[in-house]
Design goal:
The structure holds two protein chains of two kinds.
Chain A lengths: L2 E10 L2 E11 L4 E5 L6 H9 L6 E6 L2 E2 L10 E4 L11 H11 L4 H14 L15 H13 L5 E5 L7 H18 L2 E6 L2 H7 L2 E6 L2 E6 L1 H6 L4 H6 L4 E5 L4 E2 L2 E2 L8 E5 L5 E2 L6 E12 L3 E8 L4 E7 L10 E6 L5 E4 L5
Parallel strand pairs in A: 3-8, 3-9, 6-7, 7-8
Antiparallel strand pairs in A: 1-2, 1-4, 4-5, 9-10, 11-14, 12-13, 14-20, 15-19, 16-17, 16-19, 17-18
Chain B lengths: L1 H32 L3 E3 L2 E3 L5 H8 L1 H33 L3 H12 L6 H12 L4 H8 L14 H25 L3 H9 L4 H29 L3 H6 L7 H10 L4 H25 L11
Antiparallel strand pairs in B: 1-2
Helix pairs in contact in B: 1-12, 3-7, 3-9, 5-7, 7-9, 8-9, 9-12, 11-12
The chains are: A alpha+beta, B mainly alpha.
């Protein structure tokens, strides 16, 4: 039961907020839509949910064209941003809502609902109203309300963005466990790349209504295909390379036809003695300690800032001190055809 | 610290003083007047329970009160239902039209009540719009005089005058329902009818009930509409009170009659207050 979006487009007035969206979400995947605000990720989720109708293209689910199906007829359920719980209903009635719509009554209903509330750990709050719950508890109710309907696909619209860091970590673990236990398809919208990377099987990166890249978190990090992705995911160093493999720091062996961009992650940059072909002398201009690692900022003789990440407290280098930076070929990623940076 | 305490105290004292002067003293005076009597057109300041006994024992008063309460209840229900339908319609419009319509609904509230009653007479009267219209569509040949000077005319006039209260309060309640809440219900498979009964109605009811309170309290004490369009059957409790003050000059009896109405109104306000603040709106545990 794959979910396939085929040439999907959506416009408001004359502005296309989604353009040529082609993607396949495999059954049982944890699939994230990642992008900054205004990237179209929420609009895309709403198109899948049926809240927004696309102006172009098709949505297929398990071989059926569901583009024109209204949201109440789609086998998907949504966990809304801000939860959208029914404020006049208790936790029990909120969770029971979907099953009552389907005509379930009596003991069967009661058992399914109490089991689900138990599963999300809210048994002692079953008769509370949403106004009496904490943010994390409301989030659990919103998830339980959707899970109890046993949808094929669960759509989550920035479900964790309103929670504080500690609670967000707990909820991430909870979501991951749920996904593993239930084997359902999760489509997860977020602007938080760490969240997307740590939770997802595959991530679709959106930029101004277009897909930049769809890949595994590992591939997005280590093999970005566009400069946008290279800069969007994690910290990165980018510099220009011409057709001969010449860069401002020397010539590489990984030449590529036409001009391109070379990227290297902060943790792969060598500091001090180096045998790399690409290297530069640089001055340490900033040092930021993050506990388990230290982020160093260097300025090369060419005037470029280079980020370097070292484990622990980092190298014993003083601010203003000059050293050599090396960029080993094997750790550099080439983004072909990328314009001048 | 001291200055803060001092200004807070002044605030408290002024608020209570205002309440005392504007509300409690007039009500208290009324209560006391009910214990006085009348002889030869002037008030006798000796205390007795005679007026209250008369109000409680005379079946005419009870009958008129019963009739008035029934009319007020019917008017309130009519206002609630029509107000609800209109508010739902208005709430569905695009923002500019929506607020224009709501403003249009509020305008009549700023106009004189007497003008509204007379315009109702113009609509329902012998040469009024309703008769002209019925003749024009060929339903009747001669203008009818059954539309005016009866209790139905009173009901219609009251609904006409009071329905803006229902529309406005219901609209406020409807507008407060977030779109995401409706979408969440649709997402779980609910159709429009179920959404109305299980989501929209319960969520807007606390606001709408405030409108019911307005329409009930205002129509139960009204004496102008029965006076001007009620005809011979139009003796309502409000008119009864009015006649004690304005015609019979029996203020003590009028005060005793008013007290009954006041107690009833407070009861209605208390019930409406409870209904407009349901448990789910409160933060503390049930």
């Amino acid at each position: 039961m794959d979910l396939i979006l085929d040439e999907l487009g959506k416009c408001y007035g004359s502005t296309w907020v989604l353009k040529q969206i082609n993607l396949t979400i495999g059954s049982g995947a944890f699939f994230s839509l990642l992008g900054a605000s205004g990237s179209g990720k929420t609009t895309l989720l709403k198109a899948i949910a049926g809240i927004e109708m696309p102006d172009q293209g098709r949505i297929m689910h398990g071989g059926t064209d569901i583009t024109s199906h209204p949201m109440e007829k789609r086998p998907f359920n949504t966990v809304f941003q801000g939860y959208a719980l029914f404020p006049h209903m208790t936790v029990f009635d909120n969770v029971a809502f979907g099953l009552r719509v389907k005509g379930q009554r009596g003991g069967v209903l009661k058992k399914s609902v109490t089991d689900m509330i138990d599963r999300v750990g809210l048994s002692d709050r079953i008769h509370a109203f949403p106004a009496q719950l904490s943010g994390g508890q409301k989030q659990r109710v919103a998830i339980a309300r959707v899970l109890v309907c046993e949808p094929r696909v669960i759509l989550l619209d920035e479900p964790l963005s309103a929670l504080d860091a500690v609670l967000r970590g707990q909820m991430q673990r909870f979501l991951k466990e749920l996904h593993r236990d239930l084997g359902l398809t999760f489509v997860f919208v977020t602007h938080d790349q760490d969240e997307a990377i740590s939770l997802s099987d595959r991530i679709c990166i959106l930029n101004q209504g277009r897909i930049e890249q769809i890949d595994t978190p590992d591939a997005l990090y280590h093999a970005p295909r566009t400069t946008f992705v290279a800069e969007f995911i994690g910290l990165n160093n980018l510099f220009q390379m011409d057709a001969n493999g010449d860069t401002e720091f020397g010539r590489t062996a990984t030449a590529h036809s036409g001009s391109s961009v070379l990227t290297i992650r902060p943790e792969s940059v060598q500091v001090g003695e180096t045998h790399a072909r690409l290297k530069s002398s640089a001055v340490l201009t900033d040092r930021r300690f993050h506990g388990d690692n230290t982020l160093l900022t260097f300025r090369t003789v060419t005037g470029r800032e280079i980020l370097v990440r070292r484990p622990g407290r980092g190298d014993t280098i003083e601010l203003g001190e000059e050293t050599m930076l090396g960029f080993p070929d094997r750790d550099c990623t080439v983004i072909p055809g990328a314009g001048p940076k | 610290m001291t200055a803060h305490w001092f200004s807070a105290a002044i605030w408290r004292v002024s608020i209570w003083a205002f309440l005392l002067m504007a509300v409690l003293i007039p009500i208290g005076a009324f209560l006391v007047y009910g214990f006085f009597g009348v002889e030869g057109g002037s008030i006798v300041y000796t205390l007795s329970l005679a007026n209250y006994i008369e109000v409680a024992s005379d079946p005419v008063y009870r009958k008129v009160l019963g009739k008035t309460l029934r009319i007020a209840a019917e008017v309130s229900v009519l206002c609630f239902v029509t107000g609800y339908i209109v508010a739902v319609f208005i709430n569905r419009q695009r923002p500019v039209l929506k607020y224009t319509l709501i403003f249009a609904v509020a305008i009549p509230l700023m106009m004189s009540y007497v003008i509204k009653i007379y315009s109702m007479r113009g609509l329902l009267g012998h040469t009024g719009f309703l008769n002209q219209f019925l003749i024009w569509i060929g339903l009747i040949d001669e203008p009818l005089s059954v539309f005016l000077f009866n209790l139905t005319a009173v009901r219609m006039t009251l609904v006409f005058a009071l329905v803006p209260f229902s529309i406005l309060t219901t609209f406020v309640g409807l507008e407060r329902i977030p779109g995401a809440t409706i979408n969440a219900a649709r997402d779980l498979g609910a159709g429009p009818i179920r959404i109305f009964w299980t989501i929209v109605l319960p969520l807007s009811f606390p606001s709408a009930v405030v409108g019911v309170m307005f329409t009930f309290v205002l129509s139960v004490g009204d004496f102008l509409a029965p006076e001007l369009v009620g005809g011979v059957n139009g003796l309502t409790y409000g008119r009864l009170i009015f006649s004690q003050f304005g015609i019979a000059f029996n203020w003590p009896l009028g005060a005793a009659l008013s007290l009954v109405l006041m107690v009833l109104s407070f009861a209605v306000i208390a019930v409406a207050g409870r209904l407009s603040n349901p448990g789910w709106l409160r933060r503390e545990d049930p």
